[in-house]
Specification:
Oligomer: heterodimer
Number of helices of chain A: 11
Number of strands of chain A: 10
Largest sheet of chain B: none
Number of helices of chain B: 10
CATH architecture of chain A: 3-Layer(aba) Sandwich
Number of domains of chain A: 1
Order of helices and strands of chain B: HHHHHHHHHH
CATH superfamily of chain A: P-loop containing nucleotide triphosphate hydrolases
Helix content of chain A: 25-40%
CATH topology of chain A: Rossmann fold
Order of helices and strands of chain A: EEEHEEHEHHHHEHEEEHHHH
Number of strands of chain B: 0
Radius of gyration of chain B: 23 Å
Strand content of chain B: under 5%
CATH class of chain A: Alpha Beta
Largest interface: A-B, 38 and 29 residues
Chain lengths: ~280, ~260
């Protein structure tokens, strides 16, 4: 598979800041993959996300989206219809008083014909499981439902990539679950490339690849099982590891020899059962 | 108390009035308002009241909800009535009084005008979704684009404002609760003291509204918003038979009121 997003030596400094927010990022993301970007506050992970649809452009280096350079203003619409962006606060990204009108916003902006908009809106709402709410007012929905409407609003644009910038930060556990299962389904069933920015490590477990950021640099990159097995590194970056990994890590400290890549709950249980035999 | 704001309120339904094209309703309301200011005599006013009542009946909008909307205007209505009663010259009701028969008639007419004006516009907003209303407005004002009036920008601002009314009301409630929890007092004291107490609510509300606006702008741009050029619509407005009928009826109504005025009725 070819890479659809590529960062080449990207540096970025906010105008009002002296410190660099991104210091030399090189990153290739393959089409159809589910990539989670993990980092604590101020690690530069949101800045990274904003580079993916040209909300921010690099101070030096370049970002290519599907071969298009984000610094090229004439390609802006092309880049943005390719990369859908979902933000933290669902209230501030919903533009209409009725769910289906909001979902129609992006295709309307793109000048899609009327019947085609209708089809896309219905399809997008079905994909996120909000079709029966299409005539509701968004402000009366729960946080998780609002965020799913926001996701539908983005996929109605039919992008190839969907970037979610801490989509669950303002949601309750149930809402978080709804959103994460919706995006992983979009990736698995529709072949969409998903980039999920988060600081909840348990949301990264289902990803194909996990990128850990700290102080504007990528400090770890690989499959979630591989990255989380580097427990000392994660701790030194002020990040925790999932409970399954911690359990195995602590048992291994006590002399057990369990596989560190048993990340999923049932894999961990199997590993423990094997050890107890 | 904030829940009582009726601005931009919409009662969904499936009546004849609800199904009319928003443009038809907008034009009909304008014609109705013109008729309101043309009406001269008792018959004319009776017709106007009858028309409003008929629309209310057809659209299943209860008089109660209209009265609820009228409440905030009660002060203006009373003031207008009082001014007309006391400042119209003519034959006094009783010798030596400043209240004149002419004054009373004028006051009644003015009050009726204001009440019917508000009723007409409420019938429009109660039966038309804000989105349809702004769409209709944009299409009606389209010719103004020729003289460089930013019609699309104006209507999108209006629809965003309507979209954020409930969000900002919710936020105001939250801020008020937070301030109350820290001992703020909004209920006692005179007008000035109460107005002052609102200041600690307005400041955070404005700050957060600006932050929201910022985020909203980024989110809209991310969804390829680039002005009104080349935009299409999911819900296209179309004039149907009932629209032509309604427009014809409104025009005939206005003509009728004007003719009645000529005969002094």
């Amino acid at each position: 598979m070819s890479s659809i997003i590529s960062f080449e030596g990207v540096h970025f400094t906010y105008p009002e800041d002296e410190l660099e927010s991104l210091c030399g990022i090189d990153l290739e993301i393959e089409e159809g993959s589910f990539v989670a970007v993990l980092g604590h506050n101020g690690s530069g992970k949101s800045t990274l996300a904003k580079h993916m649809n040209a909300i921010l452009v690099p101070s030096s280096g370049r970002v290519l989206i599907n071969g298009l350079n984000t610094a090229d203003e004439s390609q802006l619409i092309g880049i943005r219809r390719c990369v859908g962006m979902v933000f933290q606060n669902p209230d501030n990204q919903i533009v209409a008083n009725v769910v289906e009108d909001d979902v129609a916003f992006a295709p309307e902006n793109l000048g899609v014909p009327t019947e085609e908009i209708r089809r896309r809106v219905d399809q997008a709402l079905r994909q996120v499981g909000m079709y029966e709410y299409r005539l509701h007012a968004p402000h009366l929905l729960s946080g998780g439902q609002k965020q799913r409407v926001a996701i539908a609003g983005v996929i109605a644009m039919e992008p190839r990539i969907i970037v979610l910038d801490e989509p669950t930060a303002m949601l309750d556990p149930q809402g978080r679950q709804e959103v994460i299962s919706t995006v992983s389904r979009l990736c698995r069933e529709n072949g969409m490339t998903v980039v999920l920015i988060t600081h909840h490590m348990d949301e990264c477990v289902g990803a194909d690849r996990l990128v850990v950021m700290s102080n504007g640099r990528i400090v770890a990159d690989g499959s979630p099982a591989k990255v989380f097995s580097q427990v000392e590194l994660m701790h030194s970056e002020g990040l925790d590891v999932p409970e399954t990994t911690r359990l195995i890590y602590e048992l291994n400290q006590e002399g057990f020899r369990l596989p560190m890549d048993a990340l999923a709950l049932d894999a961990c249980a199997d590993a423990l059962a094997d050890a107890l035999k | 108390m904030l829940k009582d704001i009726t601005l931009g309120q919409f009662f969904p339904g499936d009546t004849l009035v609800h199904r009319l094209d928003p443009r038809t309703k907008l034009i009909a309301v304008v014609l109705y308002i013109v008729a309101l200011f043309q009406a001269g005599g008792v018959v004319g006013y009776m017709l106007l009241i009858l028309a409003a009542a008929a629309c209310m009946a057809v659209s299943h909008i209860s008089p109660k909800s209209i009265f609820k909307g009228l409440k905030p205007m009660i002060f203006i209505i009373i003031l207008t009535g009082a001014l007309n009663i006391f400042y119209t010259t003519g034959t006094p009701v009783l010798p030596g009084w400043i209240i004149t028969w002419e004054g009373i008639i004028r006051a009644v007419k003015m009050i009726l005008r204001i009440v019917l004006l508000i009723t007409g516009t409420f019938l429009l907003t109660y039966t038309t979704s804000p989105m349809a209303l702004t769409d209709g407005l944009e299409l009606l004002m389209n010719p103004l684009k020729k003289i460089k009036v930013p019609v699309h920008e104006m209507t999108i601002m209006m629809s965003m404002a309507l979209r954020f009314i409930p969000t900002l009301i919710e936020e105001t409630d939250k801020i008020m609760s937070a301030q109350k929890a820290r001992g703020a007092d909004f209920e006692t004291g005179g007008l000035i003291k109460r107005a002052r107490a609102l200041l600690p609510i307005l400041v955070p509300l404005f700050v957060s509204a600006f932050r929201r606006a910022d985020e909203l702008a980024v989110a809209m741009e991310s969804r390829c918003y680039h002005g009104g050029q080349g935009r299409t619509r999911m819900k296209q407005l179309r004039f149907a038979g009932i629209d032509y009928g309604a427009l014809l009826a409104s025009a005939a109504f206005l003509a009728g009121v004007i003719v009645l005025k000529k005969f002094g009725l």
